[in-house]
Every structure is written in structure tokens, then in C-alpha cells.
Amino acid sequence: MINFKSDPKNFIRALPKAELHVHIEGTLEPEMVFSLAGKYGIPLTYPDVDTLRNAYNFHDLQSFLDIYYQGVLVLKEADDFFQLTYNYLKRAHDDGVVHVEIFFDPQSHLDRGIPLSIVFEGINRALASGLKDFGITSRLIPCFLRHLSSESAMATLDALMPFRDSFCAVGLDSSEKGNPPSKFVPVFDQARALGLLTVAHAGEEGPPSYIWEALDLLQVARIDHGVGCEADDVLCERLAAERIPLTVCPLSNIKLAVFKRIEQHNIKRLLKRGLCVTVSSDDPAYFGGYLLDNFMAITEGLELSEEDVVALARNSIEASFLPSDEKTRWFNKIERIAHA
Ligand code: ADE
Ligand code: ZN
């Protein structure tokens, strides 16, 4: 059996983990940007892969999104979405991820003339291959871009309906400040009426009031990021009491300057306060690491114990949209590793 103290990386790798906050467009590595740009004759402003990767220096969420939305433009055919998703699943499997819940941004593709049938075809084919080749289970969560109007989000929900069987929830992402969850009440009402679960990015850069709105107005099952909750004790108590999960993305928070240094990150404090915090990679191709890199960064930077990392793995299964019998199977496997 692998020992946490002597080999934390392989101990964490062996723990069954769910990754619940990863944007598939954020797994687009610079190498793939260049190969697809070559395939389609799309000119790039960067001369090579290394220069592009070195340009990934962000000072806030918007400075990242400006580059991220440029990257998306090289994704055109179903095969591109297949390769993108399959590469991510292979990488996640290498990190000991057993279940993934993947975001994508329908409006980023629809608005440049790529039909959703192409996007779903490529992603769904990769998810089927991921199950067959790696045993990874999955869910898909299309997100509405919050810098666009609520009417655009509603039209997107309509456009998603022919593919209703391919996703279990809808989410909310993009530029948080100035775009509160309250802007999207009608579309989330409609989504829930259609039997969909809901999640939303809130408290990444925005105030605790955005987390309250996501809970009370959008009735979300999880908060994406949510680290801003710490400024509001009543909110923290509610999140802990109701076990509302936060999908926390440590390396993302450092790259986007939510926290200056990993040693200042609040995930350990939130865990100790009883919140159901989980670890995810957000946009790993841009933020310098996949799931295991995120776990290692906080394990080293915050001096996490074996008990802490086991709790984080357990929380990820608890917070997932897996059925309870599958959750129980993973909980049992985690317990066996924890007590070996
Ligand atoms: N889209 C992709 N990554 C995001 C993030 N970290 N926050 C908001 N929207 C995003
Ligand atoms: Zn995100």
C-alpha cells in the first residue's frame, strides 16, 4: 500500500476522485491550438507553442477570458471536440479521476456558426470512448455566458433541448463582476422546470451576495469556486449546514490573482469549518496543472494531512451527480485506501 507521508502524490493518485469543475475548452493545450490553426489556415498572433504558453500571464478573470475565447476559435469539427475531450479524459485517468462533470460553453460555438449537433457529436463520442477505454463515468453541463443577455441564455436553453438526454444540469460562467445570478432567474426557472439540475460560478471574484443569489434565486445544487464566501460568516454556516458543495480550483485562483500565493488559499480553512469543498482544475491548459497538480499544490502549500486529502476525495464523490449506489461504491474504496 502507498504511504501518504513518504509518497503523497501516488497516495492521492490512488484515491478515487471526481472532477466536477473543468471547462472542456479550457483543456485546449497550445500544441492543439497550433495543430488545428494549421489544419484550418487560421493565422495566430504567436509564432510558436512556447511563446503562446508563455503568454498565459493573467492578472484577473477578464484578462484570462480574453485569451481563452480566442483559443476556442480553432475548434470547428466534431473530430476536434472528440480529440479535445478524449485527451482530457486520458489525462484525468492518469491522475486517478474516476468520474468527471464537464462544462462547455454552447454560445461560444453557436455564435460563430458551429451547430450544437457538431459539439455534442464530438464530446459524446469521446465520453463513450472514455468509459470504454478508462472506465471513467461522466456528465455534461452546458453553461450560459453571463456577460451576454438573459434572452441569449434562454435562446441557448431552447437550442439545447434536442440534446436533453446528453446533459444533466446547466451552469453559469464567464465575467462574474457586474453580472449577478439574479440576471438569469427566468432561464434557471425554466431549466429546473425541465428537470435539470443547476450550478453557477459565484464568489470567484464576486461578492458573497452573488453566492446568496445563486442559492436562493437560481437554487443551485453546487457553487463553482465560492471561495469568496469566507467574508460572510452566516453564509459559511449555511453552506456547511446544508453541505452545499464548492468546486474550488486552487491553481486557477492563483493564476487569476484571487489569492496571491498558494499558502494564503482558504480551502483548508473552509474544510475545517465543515464546508463540502472539492478540488478541480477549471482550465488546466491555461492554469499550469491538471487535478493531481492542484492536489499537490495545496498539499504542499497548506501542509494538508492524509485525513484532509481523503476528505477532499470523499467530498468530490459526495458532491457529484452520480446515483447513490455508485457513490457508495467509491466511498467504500476510499475508506479501504484510507485505512490500509
Ligand atoms: N470560463 C472558463 N473558466 C472560467 C472561470 N474560471 N470563471 C468563469 N468563467 C470561466
Ligand atoms: Zn470555471
Describe this structure in words.
The structure is a single chain. With 340 residues, the chain is an alpha/beta fold. It is globular. The chain is built from 17 helices and eight strands. The protein has helices at residues 8-14, 30-40, 49-54, 61-71, 78-94, 106-110, 116-134, 150-160, 185-193, 208-216, 233-241, 250-255, 267-272, 284-287, 291-301, 306-318, 324-338; strands at residues 17-23, 97-104, 137-145, 169-173, 197-202, 222-225, 246-248, 277-279. Strands 1-2-3-4-5-6-7-8 form an eight-stranded parallel sheet. The mean pLDDT is 98. Helix 1 (8-14) crosses helix 15 (291-301) and helix 8 (150-160) packs parallel to helix 9. It has a single domain, classed as Metal-dependent hydrolases (TIM Barrel). It binds adenine and zinc ion.
Summarize the structure.
The chain has 340 residues and is an alpha/beta fold. 50% of the residues lie in helices and 13% in strands. Zinc ion binds at residues 21, 23, 173, 201, 224, 282.
SSE layout and pairing:
Layout: H1 8-14, E1 17-23, H2 30-40, H3 49-54, H4 61-71, H5 78-94, E2 97-104, H6 106-110, H7 116-134, E3 137-145, H8 150-160, E4 169-173, H9 185-193, E5 197-202, H10 208-216, E6 222-225, H11 233-241, E7 246-248, H12 250-255, H13 267-272, E8 277-279, H14 284-287, H15 291-301, H16 306-318, H17 324-338
Parallel strand pairs: 1-2, 2-3, 3-4, 4-5, 5-6, 6-7, 7-8
Helix pairs in contact: 1-15, 5-7, 8-9, 16-17
Bound molecules: adenine and zinc ion.
